[in-house]
Amino acid sequence: MAVLEQYSHEPYVAVCRFQMAYLGKPASDLDPDKVKRGYAALARMEHKLASTRFLVGDIISLADVSLLAYTRLAHEGGFHLDGYAAVRRWIGETEKSLGLPPAALRLTGMAMAATSSITIRRACREDVDIIVRMLADDPLGGARERLEDPLPSSYFRAFERVDRDQNIQLMVAEDNDGAVVGCLQLAILPGLSSQGASRGLIEDVRVATHCRSRGIGEQMVRWAIAEAREQGCKLVELLTHNTRVDAQRFLLCG
C-alpha cells in the first residue's frame, strides 16, 4: 500500500488537487495522463475495498491513514467518486474511526442570510439521546417517541442497524462549539425506473429549538441533496408530514 500511495496515488490524485486547489487551474487544463492514472489508482482501491472493510483487512491500519488524506479530497482535484461506492464507504468509515469530520462538509452559509456555521458528520452512538430528543420536540414527534432516562434499548438497536446499512446515512450538524444542533437521515434507494437510477430519500430533518431560524435546516437539506446527486441519484425526495409546513419549503429537488 505504501507503493500505491507513493507511485500510483500521490503523483496523480494529489498533484491534480494541488494544481486545482492552489494554482487555480480548471479541470480542463489538467494533464489527461495524470487524470487517467489517478482514476486507475482509485480503481485499484475500489477493487480491493470491494472485498475488505479496510485496505489490509477488517481493522484500520497505517495504509488507510496514509491514503485517506488525498482520497477524501480527490474531488478538489477534479476526480469524481460517483462510480466508486466502496471507496466512498471506506472514506466514511475511516474518517469515523479516526474521529474526523467528513471532508468538505463544513458549511459557512455565506450565501444565506443570518445563517450559522455548522459541521455535518455521521452520527455516532453517543448522539442517539440528543437525536431522539430533537425528534420528540414537537407535538407530532412527542406522541411518537419515548423520552425516558435511560432511553429504551430499541433506539440503540435501531441505530446499530442504520449504522451498518451502507445505503443509509444518519447525520448530525454541530455548531462551532461541537454541540449537536440538528440531524437528518439520507437513504439511497436503488430502482429500475429512469434507466436504473437511484433515488435519494431525506427524512427526519430536525433542528434544536434554540437554533431554529438560522438556516441550519436548509444547510443540512442542501448537503443531503448534493450527497444524493454525488451518489448518482436522479431524484431526491424529502419525506415530511403535511403538518410540518416549514419543512415543505425545502422541496426543491427534481
What can you tell me about this protein's structure?
Helices cover 44% and strands 16% of the residues. By secondary structure, the protein is of the alpha+beta class. It has two domains: 2-98, Glutathione S-transferase Yfyf (Class Pi), Chain A, domain 2; 106-248, Aminopeptidase, CATH 3.40.630. The chain has a six-stranded mixed beta sheet with strand order 1-2-3-4-5-6, sandwiched between helices. The radius of gyration is 19 Å and the shape is globular. The model is unreliable at 105-114 and 248-254 (pLDDT under 50).
Spell out the blueprint of helices and strands.
Blueprint lengths: L1 H20 L10 H18 L12 H10 L13 H14 L7 E2 L10 E5 L5 H8 L3 H6 L8 H12 L3 E7 L5 E10 L3 H4 L1 E10 L8 H15 L2 E6 L6 H4 L6
Parallel strand pairs: 5-6
Antiparallel strand pairs: 1-2, 2-3, 3-4, 4-5
Helix pairs in contact: 1-2, 1-3, 2-4, 3-4
